[in-house]
Specification:
Blueprint: H1 4-46, H2 50-74
Length: about 80
């Protein structure tokens, strides 16, 4: 079994390393959240209507799928 002093040094260094990694991760997370908030604010301020366009595309896609399913149910061959 290794001496107690070396175990103490290893455990202290390990805890310090874990603390540094956790601190860096928290700092990076906070930065990412600030970036996303800025992007959302910029999108809101610019007046782009991207979600509505995306919803219209989704709606058109759903309508096309419904047409195809109705054609299949009616026996029309594509």
């Amino acid at each position: 079994m290794p001496p107690v002093e070396s175990l103490l040094v290893l455990s202290t260094a390990s805890l310090a390393g874990i603390g540094l990694v956790a601190g860096f991760a928290a700092w990076a997370w906070a930065g990412w959240l600030r970036l996303r908030a800025e992007e959302l604010r910029a999108r809101h301020d610019s007046g782009h209507d991207l979600p509505a366009i995306g919803q219209r595309i989704d709606l058109a896609d759903l309508k096309e799928r419904i047409r195809k399913l109705e054609a299949i149910a009616a026996g029309v061959d594509f």
